[in-house]
Each structure stands twice: as C-alpha cells, then as structure tokens.
Specification:
7-stranded antiparallel sheet, alpha+beta, elongated, 4 helices, 25 strands
Length: about 375
C-alpha cells in the first residue's frame, strides 16, 4: 500500500473578520479516495454562543421567510447610508463604524450613527437600526439558543439542512440533499466546545472543533454581526444581498423546517474507560443516528501509554492539548505531534502505541468502512 506510515498534516489557516479557521485534511482525497469527512478548528472574537435548529414554540415558516427578506432590505438601506456618508470613501472611518456596529449587535448598546452618516433626520436612521434589531431578535426567537460553556463534554450535531449560526458567523444551513444539477452537496457537521486551561487550571482560551462532510456548500440567510467589510474601495456587505427569488430558492434547497427539541442536537459524551490516569470518551459512534463519522476523546491526566487503534478503518488523530509520540509496532518508527497538530492513520498500519504527556487531550476521528 502507498501509506503504511502515519501521514502528518499541516493545517491550512484562514483568517476572517470574525476569527480564524484551521482546516485539517480537507485536500487529501487523492491519497484517501474513500475519505468522506475532514475537520477544522474555529476561534472567534465573539461570545461563546450559537443557535441551532428551529424550536417548537415560536416557529412559523412563512413569517421566518418574510423576516429574512425584511432583514435584507434593512441591511441594504443601511449600506446605502454608509456608501453615501463619511464612510463611503474613507476606510479608517468605515473600520471604526464596523467595530461600533459589531459591539452594538452583541451588546445592544446605543449606536453613535451620527459619526458615520449624513442625514437631516437622525431619528429616522435610529428607527431603521431599531427595526433591524427587532427583526433579528424575531429571527433568532425561532431557534434554540446554545451557550457553549453549558456544553462541555457534549457534542452538538448539526444535520445538513439545519438552520444554525455560531455567533459572529452568518445564519446559515447546507443543502438538504445532494443536488448534482446545481453542483451542491450535503454537509453534516458536529461541534465540540473545547476550553484551554493553563497549568493552574484557569481557562485561557477556547475553540470549537468542527468535524464535517467534505462539502463546504453553504446557504447564508442573514449576517448579523460582521455584516459589512471594505471591498473595492468602499463599504460592501460581507455576504451578497439576494433578491426574493434567490432567497426562496436557497430556502427551498437548504432548510428543513421541522422543529425539534434542543436535545435532538446536543448529546453528552460517554466515559467508556478510565484507567491509570487515562480517560476514554465516546462522543458519537452510531451508524443509525450518525453514519458520517465517529469521534472519541482520550484525556491523559498523567503521562501514559495507549495501545492499539480505536477504529479499524483509517482515522485521524488530533492533538487538542499537550503532546504525543506515535510508535508504529511493525517498524518501530516514531512520530511526534504537538498541540494543534494532526495525522492520518492508514487502516493498513496495524497496531501502534501513543505515548502521551501529562494533561494531553487527543481526538480520534474516523469512519468505519461500509
């Protein structure tokens, strides 16, 4: 076989206005043609919150669609004010506006619009902002609110076609089904919230581990927080402002409207082994419920040695914290991985051992062969 040894992979880092993504193993299809998933790490500069799935209390389909169009119209009106005011040809003023706008969307504080527009009727502009805030609040009321800090040791499953939004990113979904004639494909994904602690046990950082199908086809319905950016020498919206027909088309292609309880999306991990300072957790490994990939976590509270793979098929090892050394039994070769690094283990490799340092956290991600 071509790959009997572990394939060490380097993440592709992508920066955005809301934060950063590190993509792992999204481009190894030629090496592993059977592969149907990849994963990434997301960090944001926004609060640890998200919205997932329609709830069963407030949900009204047509009202939701009308609000999406209304939100677009209000953003378009605000964009026009920006382009025709002091922000229109001054990037520095625009960047100041953008930061104030993001803070307003998070904190709902007073917005100093007079600094950024030219108008004889400021109250009308403030009414526009109030209307925009109310419209977004109504849209979000249709969904389940998630505080990531309440989901430690849980996995959040986001089936394709599910409305969702990590704070800072757009309100979005992915195609309900594969659409070959449009070159659009499903994207089932899962999130795991991971706080990062220092040696004193204090949280110093956090990130989201997102595992997903290989497709990255996304439909965005509204962009609440980082709505605007500087492009082609003037303020523009970060996402295209779609017309009514385009909105209705992506909603028809991309949204499952059946409301579900929050428990349908959030599952607690299960401890399946605890021995010699090593804790093994299963987040998801259920072909009936979730046939897309399996996820395990190994936490080493003390330095330790772990034998044999958890999954018989090819799989990924991702070091979320600490460091490890992999030793291949058949060859004796060793491979070192630090926090934030990953590798692919071929199913032909056979048995291997992992020597882990104290306070190490490793994720094992894979999919059993059909």
């Amino acid at each position: 076989m071509l790959f009997r040894e572990p394939v060490i992979t380097i993440p592709n880092r992508v920066s955005y206005g809301w934060g950063e993504e590190h993509w792992f193993n999204a481009d190894v299809q030629m090496l592993f043609p059977e592969r149907s998933y990849f994963f990434k790490v997301l960090t944001t500069r926004f609060p640890k919150k998200a919205h997932v799935g329609f709830n069963s209390v407030y949900f009204q389909k047509q009202h939701f669609i009308d609000l999406i169009k209304q939100e677009r119209d209000l953003v378009r009106a605000l964009l026009s004010l920006l382009q025709n005011g002091p922000c229109g040809n001054n990037r520095s003023i625009f960047e100041n506006f953008r930061e104030q706008y993001i803070k307003w969307n998070i904190n709902k504080n007073d917005f100093p619009m007079a600094q950024f527009i030219q108008t004889n009727n400021l109250s009308e502009v403030n009414n526009l902002l109030k209307h925009l805030e109310d419209t977004r609040s109504q849209l979000i009321s249709f969904t389940h609110a998630v505080n990531f800090e309440n989901t430690k040791d849980h996995i959040i499953l986001v089936p394709t076609g599910t409305i969702h939004s990590i704070m800072g990113l757009s309100l979005q979904s992915h195609p309900k089904q594969n659409l070959p004639h449009k070159n659009k494909h499903t994207k089932n994904e899962a999130w795991i919230y991971l706080p990062v602690y220092d040696h004193h046990g204090s949280e110093v950082d956090w990130f989201i581990l997102e595992i997903q199908e290989l497709s990255n086809d996304t439909y965005s319905y509204a962009d609440f927080f980082a709505s605007f950016e500087w492009k082609d020498g003037r303020p523009q919206t970060r996402k295209p402002l779609l017309d009514d027909n385009e909105i209705e088309e992506i909603i028809a292609d991309g949204l499952l409207f059946e409301p579900k309880p929050q428990e349908a999306y959030i599952k607690k991990s299960e401890v399946i082994l605890e021995k010699n300072g090593i804790v093994l957790k299963r987040y998801i490994d259920d072909k009936a419920l979730w046939p897309f990939f399996s996820i395990y976590e190994i936490t080493c509270n003390e330095s330790g040695k772990i034998d044999t793979p958890l999954l018989d098929s090819h799989h990924d090892l991702f070091v979320a914290q600490g460091s490890i050394e992999i030793m291949v039994i058949t060859t004796g070769k060793k491979y070192a991985l630090q926090a934030g690094e990953a590798c692919i283990i071929s199913e032909e490799l056979g048995k291997y051992t992992i020597n882990a340092s104290k306070d190490t956290k490793i994720f094992v991600i894979g999919k059993e062969s059909d």
